[in-house]
Amino acid sequence: MDVTSHAEELASALGIDTQEAKDDLEALLSYSVPLEEAKRSVRRKHGGEPGSTDATPETRSLADITTDLETVSVEVRVLTVGTRTIRYQGEDNTIREGRFGDETGTISYTAWQDFGFEAGDSLAIGNAGVREWDDEPELNLGASTSVALAETPVETDAPIGGEADLLALEPGDRGRTVEAKVLSVEQRTINGRDGETEILSGVLGDETARLPFTDWDPHPPVEAGESLRIEDVYVREYRGSPSINLSAFSTVTPLSEPVVVADSAPRLTLAEAIDSGGLFDVEVVANVLEVRDGSGLIERCPDCGRVIQNGQCRVHGAVDGEDDLRIKAILDDGTDSVTAIIGTDLTAEIYGGDIADATDAARDAMDKGVVADAIRDELVGGCFRVRGTLSIDEYGANLTVEEFEPASDKPTSLAAAALAEVRQ
Ligand SMILES: [Zn+2]
After folding, report:
1. Rounded distance from Cα 314 to ligand 1 centre (Å)
2. Which residues, in sequence order, are bridge partners of residue 166?
3. How far is the centre of ligand 1, averaged over its atoms, from the C-alpha of 202 (Å)?
4. How many structural domains are present in the chain?
5. Are residues 204 and 172 in the same domain?
């Protein structure tokens, strides 16, 4: 083992940063302190038991593990195993991550080497490090951790294996398996850690929900309209909603039976939707209070797509703008308000004409504002059923609209009905 490996082992056992452990270790070694003595000193400095390498900590229930503990021994059932490569100090490391369960609860783990266990295995784990991750304790399995099959199966109420409906996925999930239909997909080029890389991004759907996905190592079966079984995905948060991530370790198998996809989104009040922190697919019924400036016939930068003013992109300077149609409208349902952003095609439907019609009208009137005025007449004061993606950032709540149509029921009565339901 080199110094880095020893530092990783110490960091894992002590719940500290590897670089910190390495710096400490190297400082001592530079004074010719023998390695074992140096490691004991580092453990002592960070509050660990100085001689604890071989001592096995007492076996604990998962519910009793807190971040105050440095190392623990546990008997657990493996619930999920995800595989991922992370770049750490310039080197690619393949790690395993997922959740363990026992009779008292579940805990997430990261294994820095391959111990060869699979979902469903019952394990006796000695000397696992405890660290804090997302405000929760997490087990770290490293070079100083022992992993063996438990003598008797470990009972757990938690589901074994990673199969999940899209609705059940949560940011932080790893090693999950979904069966879903590819609703849309596009290829994108990103500047990754190894230069330009092709990735896929789009939307997956099943009977319970629709969620965005990214395939970081494009799998050929991922095509629009395909129903797929996708094993070993991990879930991240993207603008408040879960997003599914496929890696080189994910396996994708086409399904012979098509996956049924929900065609409606959950309907919420704006207050509920905004409270949730962001939703990929939601439906609201609300009044249009205002059609904001920057609606109607606009010009975009041909390089970056930003809306430009007077032929100036704020990134690319003077450019030859491209005409486009869009609407930014304030929606309010009595519980809260949101800015709805309506794209080219829906705006053309609402306006009753395409970009060419709008430029003609603007030329005739010698005023681009006539397009926005026509849209105002159409929308302001009206009540609409709106479906789309709600994202929330420091500037407020935005609803990127997918569907937009006149509503038969009034939002205020709906809000009242929702409130009555809650209060029952
Ligand atoms: Zn630009």
Report:
1. 7
2. none
3. 24
4. 4
5. yes
Q: Does one domain contain both 183 and 141?
A: no
Q: How far is the CA of 320 from the centre of ligand 1 (A)?
A: 10
pLDDT tens by residue, 123-156: 999 999 999 887 889 999 988 899 999 999 999 9
224 and 185 Cβ atoms separated by less than 8 Å:
yes
317: CA distance to ligand 1 center in Å? 7
The domain that holds 305 is classified in CATH as: 2.40.50.140
Cα 210 to Cα 169, 228, 282, 394, 397: the distances in Å are: 11, 14, 10, 25, 20
Structure tokens given for 169: 């996925």
| C-alpha 323 to ligand 1 mean position (Å) | 14
Cβ count near 394 (within 10 Å): 4
Q: What is the mean pLDDT of residues 170-198?
A: 90
Q: Are residues 103 and 210 in the same domain?
A: no
CB 129 within 8 A of CB 145: yes
Q: Hey, how many other C-beta atoms are within 10 angstroms of the C-beta on 189?
A: 9
CA of 35 to the centre of ligand 1 (A): 57
pTM over 0.70: no
286-302, pLDDT tens digit by residue?
A: 999 999 999 999 999 99
Mean pLDDT of all residues in 154-163: 91
Span 34-87, pLDDT tens digits: 677 777 778 877 776 554 444 567 789 999 999 888 899 999 999 999 998 887
Same domain, 40 and 177: no
Domain of 76 in residue numbering reads as 62-149
The verdict on 217 and 142 lying in the same domain is no
Shared domain for 81 and 108, answered yes or no, is: yes
- The mean pLDDT of 228-233, rounded to a whole number, is 96
If asked whether residues 390 and 279 sit together in one domain, one would say yes
| Cα–Cα–Cα angle for 299, 303, 304, rounded to 5 degrees | 75
Q: How far is the CA of 393 from the centre of ligand 1 (A)?
A: 22
212 CA → ligand 1 middle, Å: 26
Domain co-membership, 196 together with 229: yes
